[in-house]
Amino acid sequence: xxxxxxxxxxxxxxxxxxxxxxxxxxxxxxxxxxxxxxxxxxxxxxxxxxxxxxxxxxxxxxxxxxxxxxxxxxxxxxxxxxxxxxxxxxxxxxxxxxxxxxxxxxxxxxxxxxxxxxxxxxxxxxxxxxxxxxxxxxxxxxxxxxxxxxxxxxxxxxxxxxxxxx
Length: 166
What we know:
Elements: H1 7-21, H2 46-58, H3 66-71, H4 78-104, H5 108-111, H6 114-132, H7 139-155, H8 159-165
Helix pairs in contact: 2-4, 2-6, 4-6, 6-8
């Protein structure tokens, strides 16, 4: 006796199989706005990792108070402007290094969130820019530095809402 299905049985098997594999809630064509997988954020490059460890090991960021900020503007001279730029180039990389390390230390599942990964990459790029920026020595360089700094601030203007999405 043969156990081969007849034509009617073969059609029944075929229709029930396709009915089982094709669920009504499965998207036939995936939406381009939705990702079905999460990727871990890229690890920092060797150069970036060395920069981060160097800035973390130097010293913790110095406390920032109003009198420190006001000291750069009284009196406003070219030397005080360049001193404030020097302060920014020494302090901001330390603070960004701390922020990058904090985001990298998040649990794996949180780090795979695309919004958190996007913010982490933005902080890494800003840190790299500040850590490798040459010293500012003239007022013309200061004007360019101020413009670049304004662009970086604009880049990070939506970091809090972006992290809130994640």
